[in-house]
Design a protein that fits this description.
By secondary structure, the chain is of the alpha+beta class. The protein folds into 3 domains: 3-116, no CATH class; 119-241, Jelly Rolls (Sandwich), CATH 2.60.120; 252-323, Phage tail protein beta-alpha-beta fold, CATH 3.55.50.30. It has helices spanning 3-11, 15-28, 35-47, 49-66, 70-73, 86-91, 94-104, 110-116, 261-269, 296-307, and strands at 119-120, 127-130, 136-139, 144-149, 154-166, 176-179, 183-196, 201-214, 220-224, 227-232, 235-236, 240-241, 253-260, 275-278, 286-292, 309-315, 318-323. Residues 19-60 form the FecR N-terminal domain. This is FecR family protein.
Length: 327
Amino acid sequence: MSRTSADSSRESLDPVALEQASLWMARLWSDDVSEEQRQACLRWRRESPEHERAWQQLQAIDGRLASLPSHAARSELFSSSREVSRRGLLQWGGLAMLLGGLGFGLSRTPQWQRQFAEHATGIGESREVTLSDGTRLRLDTDTALDVSFDADRRRIHLLRGEVLVTTGKAADDRPFSVVTRQGASYPIGTRFSVHQRAESTRVAVYEGRVALGRRADAERVTLDAGQQATMNADGVTPPEPLDTGRLARFEGRLVAESLRVAEMVEILARYRHGVVRYAPEVADLRVSGVFSLRDTDRALASLADALSLQVVYRTPLWVTIQPRDEG
């Protein structure tokens, strides 16, 4: 295969398939792998040509890593203060994105950001951090951030995910901000959340006030308690009423009020590994209730019961919600 065609093949690989392949490979490398798991992996590979391509890509790179010269094997990328096993590297998708990341942008991949950020959570995890000035951070699922405090300023760099910030009560003259790719949020004695999404930043204010400033704009938009807005390439959207159920997600609960199935699936997908899909005919069905984000399988089962649907597990990492088969 020519270099051009090889690069094209690598760049066209689905990142989700790469992460799934890395999880399957890590499972098969475990000491207690069962024959049933081997067969399940084989079925996953046969489900889609994209699955098999991702699997073969990992197999090829694994062979190349095994043949690295000693000086390359000792590089900082593959060494740390704690032992890193081949299985461990694959479990957080490192190898998958080491391969695909050359085409997708390695430093922007979820695995890279979570591994090297100062504070991070995995998919389905949450974490609370108290900073030196008394500020409390609640990191939601799949979140990574760095903290930069010095004599002149206090800054949080939100790399991905969502964080709930409760600023410290003690007097501190240093300016405080939460920085994302789109801009920065400047709180005024407050409690607020910042969500770094693919192409925008969503800010919600629960107490106090927050000023939003885009990187490309010197003007700031101020949000009061009970308001939320989005920063994107076009500017800052007008303030709108707060989504009252959003705060519950930091406590592991999804509060749904006439929520579309498509929207609920999009939220649940952030809290579990793999892929969650739905049949087109169920996308606009609406559901109300309180669902667990700590146990997304239970949430999916509750959704199915409420709307007389069924949840089909093709593998533990591939789930589809569809109309119930009455037959």
